[in-house]
Specification:
Keywords: Signal. InterPro entries: CHP02001 (IPR010239). This is Ion channel protein Tsx. The protein is built from one helix and 16 strands. It has 260 residues and is mostly beta strands. The protein has a twelve-stranded antiparallel beta barrel with strand order 1-4-5-8-9-10-11-12-13-14-15-16. Strand 12 and strand 13 form a beta hairpin. The longest helix has 17 residues.
Length: 260
C-alpha cells in the first residue's frame, strides 16, 4: 500500500468503529451479529495519502461480532498506485535491466480483534489486520494494533509485524514501503453535534523503520458527517500531509457509507 480501514481516512477507522457500535445495539437479541457495509468516496486516503491517484473508490465489507467482544471481518476497495519502470544495475557483470510495474487493482483486508467497555466512558480495542493486494507484487503487509477511547478521545497505535516489501533503499515521492518494524500513532476527537451531525478531528504520525527516517511523516484532518438514517451517512472531509516528501496539497473529499 502506498501511503493511511477505513472508508477513506476518517471512515477507514470509521467503518470498523461503526461496526462495533452496531454490536452494542444488537447483543440484546443474539450473542452473534453479522453486518455488511458499502460505501463510496471521491478519493480513498489511507493515513493521509491517496490510494487511488486522487480518484474515486467503491468500498465494502462484511463483519461478524460476538457478545464477548470478539470480532472479525473483511473489507475491499479499488486502488491505483500508478505505474512506471524499475531500473537495476549490476556493477559486477556490467548489466542493466529495466522492468515495468503496474498498480494492483484492489485491496482486500482481513481483520480480527477484541473490543470491550471498561465503563460508560472508557473502552479499548485490540486488533490484527492483514492488508492484501492479490494482483500486486510484494505489497502485502500485516499490523497489530491497540487503541483506547475515553469519552470523545481516542488514542491508538499500530505496529507492522510483516511486510512483503522487505528491501527498500528509498521510495518515490508520495509512496511508502511497508516492512517489519514500522510504527503508526494516531489520535482522534469525536463529537456529536445537533441535527445528527458529527465532527471528527484527527492526526497521525508514521515512523518507518527504513531509510533513516527519511520518509517519516505526520498528517491531520477533519470530518463533518451527517447521519441520514436509511440513506446512510454522508461526510465532507479534509486531509493534509505535513512533509514535502509527499503531496502536501490539501485534500478535500466526500464520502457515503451505508450499513446493513
Amino acid at each position: 500500500m502506498t501511503t493511511t480501514h477505513r472508508f477513506g481516512t476518517a471512515l477507514a477507522l470509521g467503518a470498523l468503529t461503526m461496526g462495533l457500535g452496531s454490536l452494542q445495539t444488537a447483543v440484546a437479541q443474539s450473542p452473534h451479529n453479522f453486518s455488511a457495509n458499502i460505501g463510496a468516496v471521491s478519493n480513498y486516503l489511507f493515513r493521509g495519502v491517496t490510494q487511488t491517484q486522487d480518484k474515486p473508490a467503491i468500498q465494502g465489507g462484511l463483519d461478524y461480532e460476538h457478545i464477548s467482544g470478539f470480532y472479525a471481518g473483511t473489507w475491499i476497495s479499488n486502488v491505483d498506485f500508478g505505474s512506471g519502470y524499475e531500473f537495476e544495475i549490476d556493477l559486477a557483470t556490467d548489466t542493466f535491466d529495466v522492468s515495468s510495474y503496474s498498480s494492483p487493482g484492489y485491496e482486500l483486508d482481513l481483520y480480527l480483534g477484541y473490543a470491550a467497555a471498561i465503563n460508560d466512558d472508557l473502552s479499548f480495542d485490540l486488533s490484527a489486520i492483514y492488508y492484501a493486494y492479490p494482483d500486486g507484487n510484494d505489497l502485502d503487509f500485516a499490523e497489530l494494533g491497540a487503541s483506547g477511547t475515553w469519552k470523545w478521545l481516542t488514542l491508538g497505535l499500530a505496529y507492522t509485524v510483516y511486510g512483503q516489501a522487505d528491501k527498500a533503499d528509498g521510495v518515490k515521492s508520495g509512496e511508502a514501503v511497508f516492512i517489519q518494524g514500522d510504527w503508526y500513532y494516531y489520535a482522534a476527537l469525536d463529537f456529536a453535534l445537533p441535527y445528527d451531525f458529527g465532527l471528527e478531528l484527527r492526526g497521525g504520525y508514521y515512523d518507518f523503520d527504513y531509510n533513516d527516517g527519511g520518509n517519516d511523516y505526520g498528517h491531520w484532518g477533519v470530518t463533518i458527517s451527517r447521519d441520514a438514517g436509511e440513506f446512510g451517512t454522508f461526510s465532507l472531509n479534509y486531509d493534509q500531509v505535513g512533509r514535502d516528501t509527499y503531496d502536501t496539497d490539501p485534500q478535500f473529499w466526500v464520502g457515503w457509507l451505508k450499513e446493513f
